[in-house]
Design a protein that fits this description.
By secondary structure, the chain is α/β, with parallel strands linked by helices. It has a single domain, classed as 3-Layer(aba) Sandwich (Rossmann fold). Helices cover 37% and strands 23% of the residues. It contains ten helices and 14 strands. Strands 1, 2, 3, 4, 5, 6, 7, 8, 9 and 12 form a ten-stranded mixed sheet that branches. Helix 1 packs across helix 2, helix 8 (264-282) runs antiparallel to helix 9 (291-307) and helix 8 (264-282) packs parallel to helix 10 (316-331). The longest helix has 19 residues, at 32-50. The chain is globular, with a radius of gyration of 19 Å. The protein starts with a strand and ends with a helix.
């Protein structure tokens, strides 16, 4: 675990590095059961580290933001280490479809189960999720503060856990400043720079969304410990989105009403199109020497697409949309 000191970020910010976390971040073909195994191992390490950052005698309230949040597996890890923990669920949803586009879209709460919010006590609020803009977390956390207040309880400390951008931390620190609560950020592998579409989060590389819109090059970077970067460089395709659509990498998802199949096939096909497009705009850059890495990612994603082809039948709408997008991307000529 690494402490991050940035002048424009208040609160405690840490980077959690594990071999399993790096495998998730660098390999979009890690999905399903393999994702669950690696997420569980990383979450267990994170909870052990949290023992030095939090009072474990204070109850933990785990805010699961549906659908991606539970896939980080930290709520399960907490059960082995914390005497009292409560699970609550909120689902926020963009009014319009938002794959790789979180620019100027409205959010609303479409489901909540807050029956386990405790009364008349202080809690540590733990929020596992993918934090791109921080907008979903803001809506969900403010709702939790309202309910806690109604029940005579309060938050002593907030913990954010997952793949996290610098932009989301700045936004949440500002938007939740009125509550005067201490923040601790536990970011997996690096603290990322958000791409121009407010979605993609890379270690480093080119902003594909920016190029697609303006046909100009924009570079991305992240805050990452040198040791972690050294481990990631041999297996990371520059510019690739580390979490991807994290909910779509999971086998089963709770949507607030029922369990449903995660559209893994769609994630894999979208990732394959993304990787190929990144290679097209990166290969003539002076720093580029990544043919072998891109080929490895394409091969792994191609094999995974074949393995998860039956999954496409459970998520027909997502699958057809991804197939259409994939075919369009392959016909695109980058100039």
């Amino acid at each position: 675990m690494y402490r991050v000191d940035l002048k424009d970020l208040n609160g405690e910010v840490y980077i959690i590095d594990t071999p399993e976390g790096r495998e998730i971040a660098c390999n979009p073909h890690v999905v399903g059961r393999q994702l669950e195994i690696r997420s569980s191992a990383t979450a267990e390490f994170a909870v052990r580290a949290m023992k030095y950052l939090a009072d474990f005698e204070t109850p933990f309230l785990v805010l699961n933001i549906l659908r991606a949040g539970p896939g980080y597996m930290i709520s399960h890890a907490m059960e082995d280490f914390v005497e009292k923990s409560y699970q609550v669920y909120i689902r926020t949803k963009y009014v319009q479809s938002s794959y790789r586009d979180h620019v100027e879209r409205n959010l609303k709460i479409v489901f909540e189960d807050l029956s386990n919010v405790p009364a008349k006590c202080g809690v540590n609020l733990l929020v596992p999720d993918t934090f791109a803009t921080g907008a979903s977390a803001e809506v969900a956390i403010k709702r939790i503060f309202d309910v806690l207040s109604c029940r005579g309880s309060h938050v002593e400390k907030i913990f954010l856990y997952g793949f996290i951008s610098k932009d989301s931390v700045r936004y949440l620190l500002s938007s939740l400043h009125e509550y005067d609560v201490e923040f601790t950020v536990l970011a997996l592998e690096d603290l990322m720079e958000l791409a121009s579409n407010n979605y993609d989060m890379a270690i480093y590389g080119l902003d594909l969304a920016y190029y697609e819109r303006f046909r100009r090059i924009r570079k991305l970077s992240s805050v990452i410990p040198e040791d972690v970067l050294d481990e990631c460089l041999p297996c990371y395709a520059p510019g690739s989105d580390q979490p991807g659509d994290f909910s779509s990498r999971q086998t089963r998802l709770f949507n607030g009403q029922k369990w449903e199949w995660g559209p893994i096939f769609s994630h894999l096909l979208n990732s394959l199109a993304f990787i190929r497009s990144l290679k097209r705009i990166s290969f003539d850059q002076p720093w580029y020497s990544h043919d072998a890495i891109f080929k490895e990612k394409e091969d792994e994603l191609g094999r995974a697409c074949l393995r998860y082809l039956p999954n496409s039948l459970f998520c027909i709408r997502d699958s057809l949309s991804s197939i259409d997008s994939f075919l369009r991307s392959q016909m695109t000529v980058f100039t």
